[in-house]
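Narrative progress, year one. The postdoctoral researcher (J.K.) led the effort to move from monomer predictions toward full complexes, under supervision of the PI. The following entry was the first complex the group processed end to end, covering 227 residues in total.
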Amino acid sequence: EPEVTQTPSHQVTQMGQEVILRCVPISNHLYFYWYRQILGQKVEFLVSFYNNEISEKSEIFDDQFSVERPDGSNFTLKIRSTKLEDSAMYFCASSAREGSYNEQFFGPGTRLTVL
Amino acid sequence: KQEVTQIPAALSVPEGENLVLNCSFTDSAIYNLQWFRQDPGKGLTSLLLIQSSQREQTSGRLNASLDKSSGRSTLYIAASQPGDSATYLCAVRSNQGGKLIFGQGTELSVKP
């Protein structure tokens, strides 16, 4: 069964460093998302991406964040200068099409620890 | 602004019991609602998707209902098993786009 994959599973970085989180969405999907979950808190939406551009972003997704689909399979989230409060589990998700009938499928997550 | 709330925050039941998890949302104008399962330190596994036009959806021992007008959904788990122990999340998709808005989850423990 197709699934969303994410690498790495755990990333440790120093405050101020750049990190890139990678995702491979399900191959025929068109819509891609990043969410994050700070320990003990709700899952929060960051950004959605369709047709090679951002379709929606949250207040969390400021200038320190960017997303890219560099080729036909990968979808990346870059954090330019990490802060302690960026420590969280980051989830990538994808869905097949817009409209009310699609389902979002999530990857296993990347745990980001900023020291 | 859409808010999603799940009650109870935690639930412990003996094996074999039927149980109901509750989810409420403040804005009834939704496209769909998804129920997820999350094991500790793991990703989200989609369990059921209910479209806004549907009243319920079933998969195996799981049954999810949706009452848009009252802003409520329930997840019914029949004949619970220890393997059902996990956190269950509900999430609604708003009219304004594809993002999901999540509740804080119900942590379920099924005791043998």
